[in-house]
Amino acid sequence: MKAKLFVIGLLFLAFVACTSRAKVAEHGQSEEGPNLELSAIDSLMWRQPDSALAVLQQFAASPKADSLDEFNEHYCQLLISELLYKNDYGQSYRPALQQAVRYFDSLSLCIGVVRNVSTISFLDARAHYINGVGYYERDSVVEACKEYLKALEVMEGHFEEKELVEEKAQFMALTHTRLTILFSDLYLHEQTICFGLLALGYYKKFASPRWHIAWMLNKVGSQYDMMDNNDSAKMLYMEALQILPDTNNITYRDIATRLAYLSYKMGESPEKSLKQLHTIIAQAENEKEFYSRCMNIGEIFYHESQFDSAAFYLSKVFHNSQSVDSKKQAAEWLVEICKAQGKEINMIEYADFLVPYANVEENQSAIKSQLTELYKNYAQREQERVFLQEKTKNKKMLKVILGVFLVLMASFIILYYNGKRKNQQLETKIETERQAHKIQQSALSNRLKRSNEELRELKDQIRQQTDNMNPK
Asked: pTM for the whole thing?
């Protein structure tokens, strides 16, 4: 506890240092952009959050923290909130974080006139996400959901899917995971499956630990399980078990437990499923896990109407489990068991326990309605965004095709006229050569005629001379 207070105290000093001075630059953006030291802490945070926390504390104690401009003050506050979360501390200094949210939102509105567009968009999304974490810690589930969805909206509106890699892919996985947990807690199966499958896609885009992927496969599979979509549930459970590197961990035992109960649901003999569950419960590492397995065993006995055995395990859960949901479910089944066995006196304890939760169920119903509406609006916006992206993509493709077509047409026309010109040139050349040949032939013909005439004249002269030499 003292160590925790010490860390929070140091972070308070960091907060004070990061907000000691205010310098408002044009459009609210730093002239230099993100501070180099803060950027280095940011980069380290994604790999080693505990080390990043120590470095931030050192930075807060240095003179450099006193000279931050407005952009970096809010950046520093965002890092403080993120490092509190990543080091398992509760969110503090909420007003300062919410100022950072508004600040980065304002930068997003003038995104066309500021530099570092990608950086600002990512910081804006992160600010909404960590603000959602703060709301969730205060049980403001609807507000938390709004912030998580806003974070997704910012990311999807400013980055193409191919850009969502490394830290951005990790951030998208975290955001979808938080939404998966949020909807799962209220047993909203459709929404849980949607965000869980999206989270899995992002987990596989970066070096995520295997047990993260297995945990999410188990989470999504359990939703199918509760919806009685047994084949899909079994497929995901089996995939999760294959991913895990070993069997000696609680995630493996959780999935094995679900598979054992699923086999019972799908027609396996209760004795075989119970045998598997007893093997798993013997491996429990703590009371929380032990009573969770007792719940599973008690449930099978309850559905098999073996009420004495069911009551034995369910009463352990009711009296000892720290999970309110498990205690409530155990109490409900124990009430039914007492009714069936005619033990109304024993039923009073369980019934009294359930009374305060009647109003909780009513409140949860209102929250579920709000969350369902938020999900519908998000899904509609997402469809519109994808439609616009496809429309824009198709327009670009049409322009490319039209451009290629015009280039081909231009090439064809140029080739056609070039060919026509060459043909004309060739015809002209041939005609010129033909005329030249004709002239040449005519000249030769005239020369031949003259030669023939000269030859005739010579013959006539020779004949005349001969006649003169030989008179009659």
From this structure: 0.79
